[in-house]
Design goal:
67 residues, mainly alpha, two-stranded antiparallel sheet, 4 helices, 2 strands, globular
């Protein structure tokens, strides 16, 4: 996915589902592809949108505002 609307859709799925794996299943993408898309958005914006832990993904304040 190289378009920004598609990237936004990925980020919204991650936020809604709480994991890269669940978002990937929903979008028919690998968890790795989902992670790379989110990282690309973060790099472009220069902010962290998600706090990643081994148990959960949580939107940062910036992530909530962006979504």
């Amino acid at each position: 996915m190289d378009n920004r609307a598609g990237e936004m859709q990925v980020l919204v799925e991650v936020a809604d589902r709480g994991s890269f794996s669940a978002a990937g299943r929903s979008l028919r993408l690998s968890p790795s592809a989902v992670s790379k898309i989110v990282a690309r958005i973060e790099a472009r914006l220069g902010v962290r949108l998600l706090v990643r832990s081994t148990r959960a993904l949580v939107l940062t304040a910036e992530g909530e505002a962006y979504v």
